Amino acid sequence: MVKRMVMKPLTWIERILFIDFIRGLSVTIRHAFSKTITTHYPYEKLTPPKRFRGFFGHKVVDGNEPQPAFDEWVERFNIQVEYGRSRCVVCLLCKKACPVPQLFEIEGRKLENGKRVVSVFNMNLMLCTFCGFCVDACPVDCLFQSDIHETASYTRRDSILDLETLEKIGRDWQMRREHEPDRIWIDDDQREKLWYENSVRLPEPKVKGRHEW
Amino acid sequence: MESVWVDLLVAVIKILVILGIALGLGAYLTWVERKVAAHIQRRPGPMVVGWHGLLQPIADGLKLITKEDLFPRYGNRFLYNLALVMALVPATLVFAVIPFGPEFEVFGYRVKPILTDVNVGILLVFGLGSLAVYAIALAGWASNSKYPLIGSMRKAGIIISYEVAITFAVMGPLILAGTLSTYQIVQNQIEQNLWYIWVQPVAFVVYMFSLLAETGRVPFDIQEAEAELVTGFTVEYGGMKFGLFPLVEWYIEVLTLSAIAVVLFLGGWSPLNIPFVGFVDPLFFLGPLSPYAWFLLKVTALFLFILWLHWTLPRYRIDQITEIAWKIMLPLALLNIVITSLIAPFIWD
User: Which residues, listed in sequence order, are joined to residue A116 by a DSSP beta bridge?
Assistant: First the structure.
């Protein structure tokens, strides 16, 4: 069923007096004299929403791991859990989920006591599309995407994230934004002026220190 | 003998002042346009270079001048460069017949603030306006590329259509004034106590449409049409040569045609006119500078109105543009001439 739309033709009065022009002009003049809505980028920066898909990071072990998933994976792969280091259990699910798997370079290492630990975790972001499949695949909430979006670099080497960098980003994230309620836009004055939905307060989620799985 | 030298000196001073105003202002109007466009789209526009981006035109100019000068393969270098001259010279020449104010006396010499008070001033304006089509046709042809060629063809079609309409539109004020001299037209409006826009609204509308079409402003910017033709006939030009075409088309031509519109319809340097009442001058406190202020104010208002239109309206299709010119604007202008000739004797009194 196709709904037929009929456009009302302009009347003669409207044609002669340019009513449609005047309507358009009144809209633009109102906008011209209202406040601008932009941010002056290099001098002012918006904080991206929490779900922003920016640079990757590894969350570190801090007691807030998703349970019982984390303990199960640790037991299965016999992982050495160290406080303040990456939660990675070297399951390679991220590599499996990736549309460009060669951008991951993941290796594990066997320690003296027979346990295992991640030793190499390189992500070549030159190949990455920031689709976030790897983040969805991660079973222990280790790999995640942060709000870092200024990703330009002078060399190709700088666009490869190694384990150190990933952990640094992860620690930084957990310090800054881990406990922030999950909403599309954070409480930002400028955004609030733009979209009236932002004046509707979402109920604060109860942070128990564990994600629900 | 002495008076010849004085005349020459006065002419040179006038030329320098007018060229300075035309080219300097033309460059700064890019800043004005960017600001107006930005605020209509609720952006602040250029903000970084200087206070609110006031030095932006200088930065742009430096950048354009220092850029590499590219030339398209198999193009015609002579015509390619000739097009620039053909664009710039006629557009700036129009300033020669624009009267900025009334006659005044300096050291016993009577000076008119108009470069040459030719007795066929308006004819000169439209003759030079028609020359613009050569610049664009040459630019499109010499570039040896398809987008410039299509753009220049479109522009040539538009200019030829609207030259006819604009010439018939200015007939109305010319009949009422009874002269072709721009200075005399303003004088006659002051003597008749009437801005011609009050009796020639139709001619004014036709004139405004033709102005937009000739200068390639929206809604008639079909020769440029970023979405279809990249930037039309300027595609193959680089650096300052590229910068010159919009400068001429969008700023100098708009400025000159606005000034001519002010002369023809809005009474040049005369103060505010109310029909049946006469002239009211709210700027009387400026004394002898008041006419210049009025002229500047009117041209600025018209220019800003054109910018406002530009950033509001969408673009017409090429066939719609020519249809408007031949089927609506030309008959309207002709009808206007007939009506004007009927009412003219009442105005002449």
Answer: A79, A110
8 A C-beta contact, residue B139 and residue B237: yes
Count how many Cα atoms sit within 13 Å of the Cα of residue B148 in the half-sphere of its side chain.
22
The residues near B305 (Cβ < 8 Å, ≥ 6 apart) are none
Contact B42 A40 (CB under 8 A): no
CATH architecture of A56-183: 2-Layer Sandwich (3.30)
The single-letter code of the amino acid at B308 is W
Binary contact (A28, B311; C-beta < 8 A)? yes
Q: Residue B38's closest chain A neighbor by CA? A: A32
Neighbours of B345 (CB within 10 A): 8
- Is the distance from CB of A160 to CB of A184 less than 8 angstroms? no
Q: Which residues of B touch A24 (CB under 8 A)?
A: 312-313
- Complex ipTM above 0.90? no
Query: What are A23-73's pLDDT values in tens digits?
Result: 889 988 988 888 888 888 888 887 787 888 889 999 999 888 888 888 899
Domain ranges of chain A: 56-183
**Nearest CB partner across the interface for B44, out of A24, A25, A36:** A36
Distance between CA atoms of residues B257 and A17, nearest Å:
23
**Cβ distance of B42 and A27 shorter than 8 Å:** no
A86: DSSP letter: B
Residue B124, token pair as written in the block: 């000169």
Question: What's the one-letter identity of residue B2?
Answer: E
What CA–CA distance (Å, rounded) separates B166 from B183?
A: 20
**Looking at residue A212, what is its pLDDT?**
45
Contact B161, B185 (CB under 8 A): no
> At B296, is the secondary structure helix, strand, or coil?
helix
The rounded distance, in Å, linking the Cα atoms of B86 and A180 is: 64
Residue-wise pLDDT tens digits, B239-285: 888 888 888 888 888 888 898 999 888 888 888 888 877 777 787 77
Q: How far apart are CA A157 and CA A173, in angstroms?
A: 23
